[in-house]
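Example 3.2
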Amino acid sequence: MFHIIRHHPLRLLTQTSLSSTCLKLMLSRPDAFVQIWKSWFSSHPLVGNKNIILMGPPGAGKTTVGRIVGQKLDCPVIDIDDDVLETTWNMSVSEKLQDVGSEQFLEEEGKALLKFSASGSVVSLTGSNPMHAAGMQHVKTNGIVVYLDVPMAVIMSRLQSMKVDRIVGQSPGVSLKDILQFRKQFYKRWHDIRVLCGGDIAAEVVAEKVLDAVKRYQNSELETFISTRSGRSERSMDKDSDKYFSDVITEGLAPDGGLFVPERGLPKFTAGEWQSLIEATYIERAQVILERCIHPADIPASKLAEIIETAYGENFTCSKIAPVRHLAGNQFLLELFHGPTASFKDFALQLVPHMFAYCIPRSCNYLVLVATSGDTGSAVLDGFSRLHDTDKERIAVMNFFPEDGVSPIQKSQMIGCQKENAWSVGVKSDFDFCQTAIKQIFTNSGYTGFLTVEYGTALAAANSINWARLLPQVVYHASAYLDLVHQGIVPSGSPVDVCIPTGNFGNILAALYAKMMGVPIRKCICASNENNVLTDFIRTGVYDLRERKLIPTSSPAVDILKSSNLERYLYMIANEDGQLVTQLYNQLENQGHFQLGKDLLGKLQQDLVAGWCSEEDCLAAIHSVYSTTGYILDTHTAVAKVVADRLQDRSCPIIISSTAHYSKFAPAILRALRIAEINQNPVSQLHLLSSYSPLPPVHWGLLETLKKRGNEDHQVCAADLSVLMSHIETLIQSHFM
């Protein structure tokens, strides 16, 4: 496999960081923190003597914060309004605006900015500077642009108290709020760093957050990834092999067979920072959260914004992207099926392909391998088929699925989603075989080395073993909570429970990560179908695959016995003890079982409770909910509904993840609704469901995909690792050679 070296200037220019002692002092002694910052910046000056450039709407506090930052760093402070514009024009900014009007003002302001020159200073921009592209491009070349992101309601309140009723760009019929909303696109375009500023946050605190954000920006060396099976001594000794986000998104599985996790954990958001996102759109929330999880040395903020807009802007049928709907009592549904392939997998797999294409070397070809229990396959194929043509020439996808272990519509969807760079292969086995085979292929250095040398092609993974798959899922769990706060269902800071149909443990792990980041999730309820190995494990601490056989059910996405992402969670609660994780998973591989110690089980049970649902109860729940509400649950959501009914204590709201649209499982839904005659044609089944005027409506995007399925052919192979490897080599030869 190719080893990627990203020669980003931030990584070349910064090799050391503040010690952990300094970080503790920052929290306990602010005076010491100031001295530490001065000392640190004296030995680690602003990159190339660049400026710290503060940007944000009028009322964001740029001038005040700039003065405090300058004082802390003992460096010059420049206010563009006072020190540049008014000096250049020999009149106040308000007089100039009144004199020339908004359009000409922006041009004059931009010209002044183009003549501006400074280094090693703190610069406070005007609220309208970012609207002049040439001027911003000029100042950005010698500066780190920090966006003071203040909630709209706070800005409006501040401007009102300052008696500001007109700003640049305002005209008759255009409100102040409209102008502020319009300007957001420019702030998003130009910033390198975002600092979230809540309503009551003091300027001194904002200044410290600015300094902390600049430190993070300069020290990308801190944001490394490690394997869940690496020992502490290995991490400290082998710094030359550090992995960053741009490495792990392409490599997928760690060389030792473990899974990549961030060495320093996930970022924490304060209660005030979450509060500032309550009024934000889904796309805005996604950008804020992902910016904190992905260092700009890997994907700059402006590029990340472009990727998020591409992924969620037009590809989802609901403008809210992931709406929360009241079901009954204290139960709410998080609808995760409005993407192009009608499952929660779209949230990651409309996003990850574009991240992947940005991070890989331009000179390399990549074959992305994926194993699916149903929904992942079509989502991966659809996501990678939406890349630019030049990217599709160097990136291809091969999807392995259990030939007889997915629903008829899922199978038709995977076949129909095949494109010039995306293929599906049915395997005469179950999902666990497909997933295990891919892991074995990735850890076979002889085979991967052969593909690299012989064909110039590296392998990558798109399953949830890939770290990048998990981050977009963290976003929708956080967003669901914020929506309940916004709707007045729960006060900000009060807890909720979540219930998630769980197979490979990725979705519920993302909820646990959201909890770590500060979302007040109390309990995560793990819902299984008759393949209830996770239920037994969470209740007893014993993970036992001996004598277990996979039971095909009507909820195939959770027909899984080996839950890959459980390894990441065990690593987390085991205090990052990679040796213990290695021991557990070696025992699972060799003996078919392992058992947690009492202390570890106690930690697990503080986060998780679990239950399972029979096929009979699943179908009964679909019928019952439809009879009482007119709403149709898919089979996986019904599993979660049954388990939530049994395990919730009704002391707080519970969010049930609705992970797929019922249209994907039409035969089971029609049986649940007690419709006797079921046509075998998937399109006819969806039309029949539509005749019932259900909530939500039939997924028409899925229906259109089935109507124009294109190539009905797909390859089918035996459950043999060497056969899968042969298929991979054949595809590489046909696509890349």
